[in-house]
């Protein structure tokens, strides 16, 4: 019973972060399942089954708050489902250990760009409103879906920073569209796992616990993302991407850093992240004050 409660709390926390920042539900939940001895395929299958429910509720909440661009959902969600099915089907015979550090380097570069761009200049507006093309979203969806299934998470960490870096879709709609399209990815991945490993290794109780926590958090996260200023949200997402992928690199065979080195690097990242978010909050408040001061005084009513 204690394990189920813990899983429900993990599901709640993971979905709160995922729904607010566009990533982390799968990575967080899968990490816990692996830590308690679940094999990779069963862990990923469990998480994706729970995500069918959490992404449905999260997508509905994001739609309710106006955070979804349905054209983006269709263009990235369908190829994402194809990639997820392929990744789930072949997980037992494919290893992503070599590709993981390389992917982390790419994502780390995107995270640095996003953190710097949003913190220094705010929301990129040069391309804002321009359509996101199929030639960009289709391969992005295929790669993100495949990584998501084989790694137990990755749809958000791959999709969110790539779309944010394009500067064509505001942060809240990027996050809402990624969360909503993940419903298709979760269904396809779950079907792939049923084909690949069957249902014997999947603990239904764990699925329900993760789902329960996620369902509670989904509408709260959708409300939060609508009310967090884009500049602050971009800085927050950028920092999370940097932290997540630095952790992957430091633990990889490429570096295999000691605990002391890892902790020192994490401390520096946390400090820089907190500074960037604080700066973005102050810059947003200053911009609001300047805009209010520039408004012409209302003319007195005529008698």
Quick overview of this protein structure:
With 303 residues, the chain is mostly helical. It is built from eleven helices and no strands.
Question: How would you describe what is shown here?
Answer:
The structure is a single chain. With 303 residues, this protein is mainly α. The protein has one domain. It contains eleven helices and no strands. The longest helix is centred in the last third of the chain and has 36 residues. It is found in: Cell membrane; Membrane. It comes from Asanoa iriomotensis. Pfam families: TauE.
User: How does the helix and strand content classify structurally?
Assistant: mainly alpha
**Backbone CA Rg:** 20 Å
Our count of domains comes out at 1
- List unreliable stretches of 5+ residues: none
> What is the average per-residue confidence, as pLDDT, rounded to a whole number?
81
Major sheet details: none
Topology of helices and strands:
Blueprint: H1 2-21, H2 25-35, H3 40-64, H4 70-89, H5 99-121, H6 134-151, H7 155-166, H8 171-197, H9 204-227, H10 230-251, H11 259-294
Subcellular location: Cell membrane; Membrane
Membrane topology: Multi-pass membrane protein
Family: Belongs to the 4-toluene sulfonate uptake permease (TSUP) (TC 2.A.102) family.
List the main descriptive attributes of the protein structure presented here.
11 helices, mainly alpha, 303 residues, 0% strand
């Amino acid at each position: 019973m204690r394990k189920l409660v813990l899983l429900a709390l993990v599901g709640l926390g993971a979905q709160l972060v995922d729904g607010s920042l566009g990533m982390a539900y799968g990575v967080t939940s899968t990490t816990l399942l692996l830590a308690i001895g679940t094999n990779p395929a069963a862990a990923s299958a469990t998480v994706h089954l729970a995500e069918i429910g959490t992404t449905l509720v999260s997508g509905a909440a994001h739609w309710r708050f106006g955070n979804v661009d349905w054209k983006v959902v269709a263009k990235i969600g369908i190829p994402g489902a194809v990639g997820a099915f392929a990744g789930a089907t072949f997980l037992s015979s494919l290893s992503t250990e070599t590709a993981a550090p390389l992917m982390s380097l790419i994502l780390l570069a995107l995270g640095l760009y996003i953190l710097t761009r949003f913190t220094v200049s705010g929301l990129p507006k040069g391309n804002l409103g321009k359509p996101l093309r199929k030639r960009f979203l289709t391969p992005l969806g295929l790669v993100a879906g495949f990584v998501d299934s084989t790694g137990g998470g990755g749809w958000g960490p791959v999709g969110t920073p790539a779309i944010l870096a394009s500067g064509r879709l505001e942060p809240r709609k990027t996050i809402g569209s990624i969360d909503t399209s993940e419903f298709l990815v979760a269904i396809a991945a779950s079907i792939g796992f049923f084909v690949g490993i069957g249902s014997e290794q999947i603990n239904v109780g764990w699925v329900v616990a993760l789902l329960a926590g996620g369902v509670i958090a989904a509408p709260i996260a959708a409300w939060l993302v609508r009310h967090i200023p884009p500049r602050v949200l971009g800085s927050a997402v950028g920092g999370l991407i940097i932290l997540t992928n630095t952790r992957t690199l430091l633990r990889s065979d490429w570096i295999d850093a000691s605990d002391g080195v890892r902790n020192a690097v994490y401390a520096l990242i946390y400090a820089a992240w907190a500074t960037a978010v604080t700066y973005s909050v102050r810059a947003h408040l200053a911009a609001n004050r300047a805009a209010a001061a520039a408004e012409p005084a209302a003319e007195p009513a005529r008698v």
